[in-house]
Amino acid sequence: MVRVVLAGPRLRQVALVAHDCDRVADELRQAFDWPQPFHDPGVGEFGLTNAVFAVGDTFIEVVAPAQPDTTAGRYLERRGGDGGYMAIFQVPDLSVARHRLDELGVRVIWTADLPDIAGTHLHPKDVPGAIVSLDWAEPVDSWRWAGPAWTGRASEHAPGGVTGLTIEVKDPPAAAHRWAAVLGISATDHGSTAVVKLESSAQRLRFVPARADRGEGITAVTIAGLAGGGPLEIGGVSFVPEEG
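RE: above sequence
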């Protein structure tokens, strides 16, 4: 068996926040012919319900508030409706990543440390545009957050997966450089927009000016091998097929 090695940060999971988790999950499944999602009871800690879809060996999650006064509920209010919520990156060395956060003065709002996976949620005021999480998994191709089929191993999966995000922010160059610093890589400015390339995973984060009517947030997810064409807007996010 060939051992998978993670050479740099990789965007492994993207979360949407919705008023109605089941409705948005059903729309995604029907539009893209995705298999039934995993429902993680662990998100009850945050007052949420969820649905996690495997998309290749990456993941799309939908979360919804299950009780009053949750972070997700407040985000829905600020954004004025459903939309992109979290970007979860897998890193090769979590201790190095966490030390980098300390040096950057980035606040951590939640951590989990299990034998096969660990997570580190960052304060959105310190890393604008979404809730960013730096996570680690062993084996590298496993992902406990996606359920038993991915715990301690990689499940059988279709080809393709998430290749990029578009994030609307007030100051795209500043946000891009902040995300890049957190990930330990670099960003490139392109006028009013900016790009962070995750070279080792062939993924790209694109930062663009926020619309006045919505505020900051993830507004598009690019996916290789996306069935059903596109772009299609579901849950306040545009799902775009990877070109080429």
